Structure prediction request, 351 residues.
Amino acid sequence: MPTARSTRLRGRGAASTSTPARLRARAVSASALAATALVALTGCGLQSAAAYAPDAAPGSIEKIDDLPADAKLTITSKNFTEQLVLGKIAVIATKAAGFDVVDKTNVPGSVPVRQLMLSHDADMTWEYTGTAWLTFLGHEQGIPDKQEQYQAVKDADARSGLSWLPPAPMNNTYALAVRSEAAEELGVSKLSDIAKLPVDERTICVESEFNSRSDGLTPMLKKYGLERGSADGVPNSNIKIYDTGAVYTATDKGTACNFGEVFTTDGRIKSLDLTVLEDDLGFFPAYNVAPVVSTDTLKRYPGLADVFEQISPKLTDETLQELNLRVDEGGEDPGDVAFDFLEKNGFVTKP
Prediction:
């Protein structure tokens, strides 16, 4: 998925320049799009444009006992950096567990990946709880509590023949960040601290979508007791609208704004030394990633659960920031980054 910045984080649909985003279409339009997308993908054979994944030998992930010699597994993922890395982690790990793996990672968009899973043309993917709840299941509001959101999605998708395994700690959601030196100077560590600042310090840079979303800037400010457009809240002159890349740059420089909208697993948080403010009132929906496996496949190969229950706890926000950065700014191949993560954690070894 990726050379443009639009391909680096959770996809929203059609990519736009410098926009890491989420696909949040309503259920009806998503279904229509899914049908069209699946036909198009099927027509071209759903061949991955990035099928490379290094070979690996077992480590703590061992060959599953009594696994048939012809056990085949199809892994799919979306086509942005984080999903490519996660997809390759799954490909390499399941190969080490003894599967003959078909690599269908790098599929363009959330809806086509979902359709592959529902049609049983793929056995496993990594999905975000908030994406499934809002986009695929058509709910208007997300659930900020991570465990409640996961359980709600898990229960709903069980009816569609999909099994959600335990989620990772990483939560790729919206947040506001501040340059780390300013966090100390201003005395801010959580979103509720912004209201304690003088009005002229309440300056915020956001992208256009977050500016107008129903779970974006305006309702977030309201949740934290700040009225947008008010002289004693956050005046409109304090809000700057930029492309996503420019938001990060402006937040880092600190001239146009003290605070900027970020995605919590974006590698630039680390490289620019930004501090993410705690969402202490729980405004933002949860977007934890979890392995999603066809229920039929999981019944056939229950050992798959053990494979991913080893991996998921190691996938934190900080870990994904580092892995994403190695691809996006370091230019490394997602497959190599995935192998390095698995090897360093002892899950696999070099063949």
The chain has two domains: 5-170+288-349, 174-276. The first helix runs from residue 27 to 43. Residues 229 and 236 are 5 Å apart (CA to CA).
